[in-house]
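SAMPLE LOG
Freezer: B-3
Tube label: C17
Construct: single chain, 289 aa
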Amino acid sequence: MFTIENQQLKVIVSPKGAELQSIFNKTFQLEYMWNGDPAFWAKHSPVLFPIVGTLKDDTYKFGNRSYQLSRHGFAREMDFELKDQRTDSIGFLLESNEKTLAQYPFKFEFLITYALQENQLKTIYSVRNTGDENLFFSVGGHPAFKLPLVDRTTYDDYYLEFNKDETLPRWLISPKGLLETKSSPLLENARTLPLKKELFFQDAIVFKHPASSSVSLKTKKTNHGLQFDFDGFPFLGIWAAKNADFVCIEPWCGIADSVDTDQDFTHKEGINRLEKNGRFERSWTVRLF
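STRUCTURE (predicted):
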């Protein structure tokens, strides 16, 4: 495990999957991340690469071949190399290798950087095409924040508040983890989404192209919460394991396959393409208060 900190925050990261384990606010003596209880969900904040979500039959087609990738891709289960560490920032690198090329025929460098500034943690995803052909990929975050955050509050006391009015349907997920071709109304010219565990009994809430670039986790019973900025991510997932005491706020550059996909990787909704030597960068920031 590796630790970075400043006067206000202390953050712990595992080299496996370059996964956040803890975001502790020293000012309030308050942990903000889910504890990873395996009875519900043993992760804390997996990184999603080179796909987001589930492929139909865990399979995609590229060129004249079919390949298999499990849900959310392989990065979250791989050991990253420590690239750079300072007191208040740290970087981890994953490069294509024989194991990745067997599942994913693209050469890449994937750098994840965590950096602290006052009461904020910034997470940067940087992808570089090190091959000779176009690189097709998705990338996303999956941080889980504990709920309730403080004593004397309950899960149902909390809500999400977007920074713009939203009219967003919820895209439904099939039993096999694929996006249905239909959606159901959820937000109608509204900014707030009250949280309750039943919201996630049918898997994640999936939003496409929200107007907002920020969402806050709040309650009227305490001043403690967080603001999550995700500018540049066209998809947003909100999820929790059934009856678990957390909520995931998931910024995605990519999305699960639809039930009617042709499985051609280059046709995949939300897929990103990088030319030779091209670089792609996105970041999300969480402010803890």
